Amino acid sequence: MTVTDDRFTKMRPFNAGAAPRIPARALPPGPRWPAILQSFALMRYRHQFIPWLHRRYGDAFTIRVVPKASPMVLFAEPERAKEIFAGDPEVFNAGKGNGILGPVMGEHSLLLQDGAEHRRARKLLMPAFNGAALRTYESVVTRLARDEIARWTPGVPFRALDRMNALTLEVILRVVFGVTDESRLGTLRPLVNKTVDISPIVLLGWGYPLLQKFGPWKDTVDNQRALDKVMYAEIAERRSAGDLEQRSDVLSRLLTVQDDDGEPGLDDAELRDQLVTLLLAGHETTATALSWALYELGRDPAQLALARAAADSGDGDYLEAVMKESMRLHPVIPMVIRYLTAPARIGEWDLPRGTNVGPSIILAHSREENFDRPDEFRPQRFLEGHVPANTWIPFGGGVRRCIGAGFSLMEGVAVLREVLLEYDVALPSGTRDVPKVRNITSVPRHGARIVVRPR
Q1: Residues 292-316: pLDDT tens digits?
Q2: DSSP string of 209-251?
């Protein structure tokens, strides 16, 4: 059995420590449909399903998900988000809440660890994402962005999502993995793209080992075997490099970190899991936010003029606000989930052990109580006044807030600046885009088509 097969067996979703079936009377209201239908609606039509549940059942409601009709309670109010983010991490388990990602990310992933293991891993990873480290990465991102936009053809419409995915993948491979060999880059790119580009049905199928012998589920496992082989080879080669201290990429930095006792901090399996986590959490999410930002600027000449002026003057704060507003108006991730390992009270609800709970990002970002005129794209809202806590939550919150949040925003600002210094952005005639569920993320259904012209 390969390390990949072992991981898929060990990290199979839904197979560990399940609580007894929780009766509906112990939970907020929700639809009585079969769990398979609710799961399908959540995975395939979440941008319609979740607002409909909110309108029908109020600020707290329950969804049952396969395979065991496990309850997931979503909340719309920021007060409930605060309670969940501030809850005891030993009770509000993030690792179990992210269990569906286990077969690909692995047991050592920062997203799947809890307690002391999570604190240790976060401490070891944090130096690679502090302010000083981000400043060293920015010049690489800027160079890669210039290389990318130099290949664009003015006046010819194209899918911004495709180009932003290609760019952010290149950033991950070079800045995080530190890969510069073109042969290895050529091997990694399709393996990574196949890892990201999977359907919700494949995600759900990870809980059923028999499916992994057939069709798209088998393809997923085969792709993971190939990706693991390349990644472990890269880690082994990098360990033997004599210039780690002079390298600035994330992998090289992580190879030099040490535990409190002075021992090497991360073994090969830990490195592999953390690198894949950074890859999946930081590639498509940032690409999607950038593609929506370009789409929104292209459909509003007034907003484009403001963003272009910010690029000209070096106003990174305004360009960061553009990224934040893109993430608010078009959530890439729908919710932040915690698994209750013990009973907990959230708002008026006393919820039993085994319940999955979390704030809905979709609802938090679209509430009029949180954001004035929430349907409008208006970056200025992030500069005009204070955005209330727990209302803008694309990176989660509390001690589990995404470690790569600063990296994502830095990358977004650098890319927007280079695009806007070179081009004006518009939408092709008749263009309109809406969200589409891709895997655990939502992306522009039509790829956020834009057209650029030299300034």
Answers
A1: 999 999 999 999 999 999 999 999 9
A2: GGGGGSHHHHHHHHHHHHHHHHHHHHHHHHHT-S-GGG--SHH
Residue 284 Cα distances to 132, 168, 192, 221, 351, angstroms? 24, 7, 11, 20, 34
Choosing among 3.40.1550.10, 1.10.630.10, 3.40.50.880, 3.20.20.60, the CATH entry for 3-454 is 1.10.630.10
Task: Report yes or no: 76 and 86 within 8 Å, Cβ to Cβ.
Answer: no
Distances (CA, A) of 1 to 7, 153, 203, 208, 365: 10, 48, 22, 18, 45
- Domain ranges for the chain: 3-454
Q: Collapse the DSSP code of 127 into the 3-class scheme (helix H, G, I; strand E, B; otherwise coil) and give the result.
A: helix
pTM of the model: 0.93
DSSP 8-state assignment for residue 455: -
- Distance (Å, rounded) from C-alpha 293 to C-alpha 433? 12
- Core vs surface per residue 410-432: b (16+ CB within 10 A) or e: bbbbbbbbbbbebbbbbbeeebe
DSSP 8-class letter at 407: H
